[in-house]
Design brief:
InterPro entries: ADH-like_N (IPR013154), Chloroplast_QOR (IPR052733), ER (IPR020843), GroES-like_sf (IPR011032), NAD(P)-bd_dom_sf (IPR036291). By secondary structure, the protein is α/β, with parallel strands linked by helices. The protein has eleven helices and 15 strands. The protein is 28% helix and 25% strand. Helix 6 links the parallel strand 9 (215-221) and strand 10 (236-239). It binds NADP nicotinamide-adenine-dinucleotide phosphate.
Length: 363
């Protein structure tokens, strides 16, 4: 592939939204060391893609301009680096394009109370931002992925079904299995779980994964998606624009052991009365006020906790999710598919924040 050019979409400065994306011809990247080169079949977008462009993760991400966004991909292996033995040309894979080298991966298994957890979470946050978790490259014809963050895609799983999984699926999986402590084999005590924004990318996976465990799931979404979220398996669904929905009140009077909080802008005071004695809010879009609540709850030894969560990509978990899709236990819902040549439509849609399931870009 050396010397060949490919079509890619990139931006060279912060801001600009869809109009800030530029279609360019750039050299096809090379697979070095432990990397594989993929001919891309599908890329799914996440809110972090537009947030990076807007400058919300500056000065850490993107690491440099011009930047080709897109981290969640499915494709065919066309070249392998010298350090790769587990993939060969022609293999179909799902990958997350990230250059994270986390040294804390295993420590975050313990989300128990305590100072170590607080320090470890802050270190994670720093590390992820400082090292630049997401390397991008998915809005192009070819991209390089690390072998450790790439997994085989069996024929039963379509490219889009696979490409939807990395950021959204791994976040839902991590939130449920680590801080919320849900066992996806159905063992363990029953837990009452609230999932906010259950119609979105993370939320729609979270509802389905939670129902693999021993859980009662309450979910919030807009009126148009109530049936959709019920069909994903939620036991009760609240329209977030009604008074009870805005108050997050379970229709059956349940108190939540864990909230997988995929929406934004809901204060602690709204969650607090709805939590069980040891209830946790797992905030996947933590801002300054969530970090303040997190620290305040730790310092006052509160039984009710707020846990800021940033997804740590792990190949073994991605493989687990791909296999659930293969077995028909998890589905990726397609909001819309867009050609790379019309990527601006997909970009405007992800910025809009009203996707039902996942938004895809493909060749
Ligand atoms: N911590 C991490 O590592 C991590 C990883 C992934 C995502 N995130 C963050 O998590 C958030 C969710 O991501 P996503 O990919 O799921 O987003 P998404 O797919 O864009 O979510 C869109 C959905 O959210 C619904 N929604 C919006 N506000 C809501 C509210 N107040 N109550 C109920 N539903 C609401 C929308 O419904 P309507 O159209 O009806 O309004 C829409 O269906 C984003 O802020 C993202 O940046 C963090």
């Amino acid at each position: 592939m050396a010397g060949k050019l490919m079509h890619a979409v990139q931006y060279s400065s912060y801001g600009g939204g869809a109009a800030g994306l530029k279609h360019v011809e750039v050299p096809v990247p090379c697979a070095k060391g432990d990397e594989i080169l993929l001919k891309l079949e599908a890329t799914s977008l996440n809110p972090v893609d537009w947030k990076m462009q807007k400058g919300m993760l500056r000065p850490f991400l993107p690491r440099r301009f011009p930047y080709i966004p897109g981290t969640d991909v499915a494709g065919e292996v066309v070249e392998v680096g010298p350090g790769v033995t587990n993939f060969k040309t022609g293999d179909k894979v799902v990958a997350i394009l990230s250059h994270l080298k986390s040294t804390y991966n295993d420590d975050i298994k313990d989300y128990g109370a305590g100072t170590w957890h607080m320090l470890s979470t802050l270190l994670h946050t720093y590390e992820i931002l400082a090292y630049g978790n997401l390397s991008g490259g998915g809005l192009a014809e070819f991209a390089v992925a690390k072998k450790s963050l790439s997994v085989a895609r069996p024929p039963e799983v379509s490219a889009a079904e696979g490409a939807g999984l990395p950021v959204a699926g791994l976040t839902a999986h991590q939130a449920l299995t680590q801080p919320a402590g849900v066992k996806l084999d159905g063992s363990g005590n029953q837990k009452n779980i609230l999932i906010t924004a259950a119609s979105g990318g993370v939320g729609h996976y979270a509802v389905q994964l939670a129902k693999l465990g021993n859980t009662h799931v309450t979910a919030t979404c807009g009126a148009r998606n109530i049936e959709f979220v019920r069909n994903l398996g939620a036991d009760e669904v609240l329209d977030y624009k009604t008074p009870d929905g805005a108050a997050l009140k379970s229709p059956s009077g349940k108190k939540y052991d864990a909230v997988i909080h995929c929406a934004t802008g809901i204060p602690w005071s709204t969650f607090e009365p709805n939590l069980s004695e040891n209830g946790k809010v797992i905030d996947i879009t933590p801002d300054a006020s969530s970090f303040a609540t997190f620290v305040a709850k730790k310092l006052t030894f509160s039984k009710k906790q707020l846990v800021p969560l940033l997804m740590i990509p792990k190949g073994e978990n991605l493989n687990y999710l791909v296999n659930l899709v293969r077995e028909g236990k998890l589905k990726t819902v397609v909001d819309s598919k867009h050609a790379l040549s019309k990527v601006e439509d997909a970009w405007a849609k992800i910025i809009d924040g009203h996707a039902t399931g996942k938004i895809f870009v493909g060749p």
